[in-house]
């Protein structure tokens, strides 16, 4: 979630962010299975080994993506709400256990569709 849920991203930002996040995941030996985003947040479906700490992975995803997006898209800073931060400090991580991957993908794909 972007800081204060401000509308920040357009398609070109989301496309580049997906590339950056895939690179970060690869560094953690983690598979980014599905990426979907809107103008103020992103959804990630990841498959990662038990040795990876979720908090470290998320901090790296946020830190690296924020730094690189600001470098590559200086115009983003004009869309920040108040603080000079791209992401809020919070995140949600859930375990999918035995849920079929197709169901999880469908859920993520439907997140940016109007209800």
TrEMBL record:
Supply the Gene3D superfamilies for this chain.
Answer: Transposase IS200-like (3.30.70.1290)
SUPFAM superfamilies xref list: Transposase IS200-like
Please give the coiled-coil regions recorded for this protein. none
GO biological process per UniProt:
DNA transposition
Looking at the record, the residues that make up the Transposase IS200-like domain are: 1-111
Per its record, what are the GO molecular function terms?
DNA binding; transposase activity
NCBIfam families referenced in this protein's UniProt entry, alphabetically = transpos_IS200
The protein, known as: Putative Transposase for insertion sequence element
Which species is this record about? Streptomyces aurantiacus JA 4570
């Amino acid at each position: 979630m972007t800081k204060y849920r401000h509308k920040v991203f357009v398609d070109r930002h989301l496309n580049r962010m997906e590339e950056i996040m895939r690179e970060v995941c690869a560094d953690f030996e983690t598979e980014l299975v599905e990426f979907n985003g809107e103008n103020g947040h992103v959804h990630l479906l990841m498959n990662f080994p038990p040795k990876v700490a979720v908090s470290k992975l998320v901090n790296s995803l946020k830190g690296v993506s924020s730094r690189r997006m600001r470098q590559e898209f200086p115009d983003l800073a004009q869309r920040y709400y108040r603080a000079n931060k791209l992401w809020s400090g919070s995140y949600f991580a859930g375990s999918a256990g035995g849920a079929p991957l197709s169901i999880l993908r469908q859920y993520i794909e439907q997140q940016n569709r109007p209800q």
